[in-house]
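From: lab user (bench 3)
To: helpdesk
Subject: output format question, protein + flavin-adenine dinucleotide

Hello, I'm new to running complex predictions and I'm not sure whether the block I got back is the full result or only part of it. Here's what I submitted:
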Amino acid sequence: GPVDIECEMLVLGAGPGGYSAAFRSADLGMNTVLVERYSTLGGVCLNVGCIPSKALLHTAAIMDEAQHMSSHGITFAKPEVDLNKLRDYKDSVIKKLTGGLAGMAKARKVTTVRGVGQFLDAHHIEVTETTGTGSETIGVKKVVRFAKAIIAAGSRVVLLPFIPQDPRIVDSTGALELRQVPKKMLIIGGGIIGLEMGTVYSSLGARLDVVEMMDGLMQGADRDLVKVWQKYNEHRFDNIYVNTKTVAVEAREEGIYVTFEKANDKSTAPAEPQRYDMVLVAVGRAPNGLLIGADKAGVAVTDRGFINVDAQMRTNVPHIFAIGDIVGQPMLAHKAVHEAHVAAEAAFGEKSFFDVRQIPSVAYTDPEVAWAGMTEDQAKAEGLKVGKGVFPWAASGRAIANGRDEGFTKLIFDQETGRVIGGGIVGTGAGDLISEVCLAIEMGADAVDVGKTIHPHPTLGESVGMAAEVFKGHCTDLP
Ligand code: FAD
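Helpdesk reply: Thanks, we reran it on our side. This is the complete output you should expect:
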């Protein structure tokens, strides 16, 4: 059939994975086309994920800190919330960033094609034009012929099948729209996304319940870190139901009624349905692999919609690569970006590989919880010989001066070599502090390297050096 556009590199999806892949491809000199169904670049992360949630969390943290100042002898008036203005602020943040991306695409001469892409075969994709800000199609089709492709079509929210349509029941995207601040809010799913959005709504005045199937909130993080977060946040929650399944949700005029089921006898969930003013469903995300016609291109997709790739991000079709949420966990923007660079470089013919020792995770709650590399739980489960160094922030001058000394910094070491293989931090700014741990792990730094590095005083960053010193202190036989 007729071809409207020819290119060397086709990138499907303009999230952090897709735009990074397109930019790197263009920088390497490849004639690049970027296909995106939405009106803005940036994908989930910029439009309805990382960035808007952080704009709101920053606001929430300032409000909470202002209240906290009464213990320092400074009392502020109770905050007045203008939801419309707050929403405008959040939207302006998104606009600044997505606008910046559009400019960068233009400067690099990346051709962006607006529409829903569906592969026709291993060298052609059909793009059905979309309109407005969403992904409503208007029937105009274009065919792009490509030499190579990178699939970066991302993921979408998972909804529970028994949940009715009701404006009071939202997913993370709906929660970011800030339509109302409910009196009583239920969060289904105690993962990072649910707890971040819960933090925002609670700071704005909502009372929270959270329900989680597993035996604790914020799965993936060591329990000692989560415990500190949970203790500091007790005041936000009326009930935390763990080991509990949500089995029914009914929308009535006077509220949303939710029925729980104990997964085991450790659950404290009530037998009667509970009433809420708003329910946030945050039970995970599903990859978009089954929605892009991948089979037509011969690209293998798993039953769940993931695309398997090798260490160069190559699918089973040698000239087609895949990156980001669509290739698997952890579904995080920084992983997508790193994979994007590998894929673009490998497609160009460079010997790039996705070969990392750690991918950090951060819950941008208050306090923040951050971890990287091997967790202590993981190390124990694998029966490794590891040691740890823990520095409590109760001994940090800066944390005490800040009035926030509830946190701690923990480093995990290979007991034989003394090398840093993991770390976790809970406390204000933990997400920024974890970067030093990431670098230490990647560089194979040991306890002496980290402990003997002079950190500026008084900073929270010192706690990383101190954690290494603590570990060294109880090891006499380090190399
Ligand atoms: P996506 O961002 O999902 O982008 C895929 C793009 O492809 C989308 O724009 C989509 O419209 C487009 N697309 C899909 N199919 C087609 C098609 N057929 N045709 C045309 N276009 C198509 N991660 C972090 O690292 N830090 C955080 O703080 C963080 N916070 C988050 C908060 C929330 C509320 C959510 C929901 C997610 C958060 N994430 C965070 C996760 C992060 O957003 C994702 O990991 C990241 O966006 C994945 O990037 P991606 O490029 O793989 O895909």
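A quick orientation on your result: Residues 208 and 237 are 5 Å apart (CA to CA). Let us know if anything else is unclear.
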